[in-house]
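Appendix B. One record, verbatim.
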Amino acid sequence: MKKICVTGGAGMIGSCLTKELSKLGYKVIVIDNLWRGKIKNISSIENFNKDEQFFNFDLSNIENEKKVIEQLKDCDILVHLADIVAGIDYVFNNEYDIFRINNNINSNTFEWATKAGVGKIIYAGTACSFPKDMQNGLDAVLKESDLFPAEPESGYGWSKLMGSLELTYLSKKHDFEFTTLMLHNVYGVNSDLDPEKMQVIPSLINRLMELKNGEKLVVWGSGQQGRAFIYVADIVNAFVKAIKAEEKLPPIIQIGPDYCTSIKELAETIIEISGKSVEIDFDLTKPEGDRGRYADYSLAQSVLGWEPKHLLKEGLALTYKWIKKEKNEI
């Protein structure tokens, strides 16, 4: 059975992926500096010993080269999820730091993986890397061919796109397989609940749980902006399929649903799930980001046999239940 390294493996996607891979019998090691990840996310995974399989390394620090290569040298596959990202306010107020650190993380990790002889790299990209003018509404559909000419809206989107480009160029120098799974808006269990770093779904749920009937849920922007939300289990399924793929994969594969949900509809659905009687207050002074986009996932369907399984309301209910449990335990 193959050995797999998951960077960012204590975060939302990484911990869920580590759990699934361990269940499938893979030997998994996790590298995470715990900027967003949590040890508790991986501490109870069956067939995973955190004391032997987890390594707290900062991949942006060149001084960790030897230690990381030592762990990668007998790995068959690297799943590279580690990056700096958070909610929209954090992303747009820290663009330079995000761009610089993410580029350092990617350059170091890819170079060290090739030095260690890793044969396959699967990189987590983002739909934020698509041109901003193409993310202009609820009916804006994206295809892999739309990625260039490039003009992402944020430093985060640029940094992730640079990672995809670097991986492409590096593969011409070294002999390894690679692909970028271009992810849309992932949500679900094990998401980051830090108020400074929370993204829209956990943020709305967290705020709603603190409200009493008759109070107002503050939603950033007009509510007319939208996102293509995808539940974390569906993302894990895509990575597993990419890991198992025996044929050479395309350099870019988009992973997301074929519809866009407005933030207004999102908030209304979460309120319905909560059973509370609250109104929505749209704060027009807050940033909205891209107006909206969704995925044409036909390439993922044809080369991976992948399609999303969880409807939005189902995934939101699971996430709401998990956050409620977390808040009660804190």
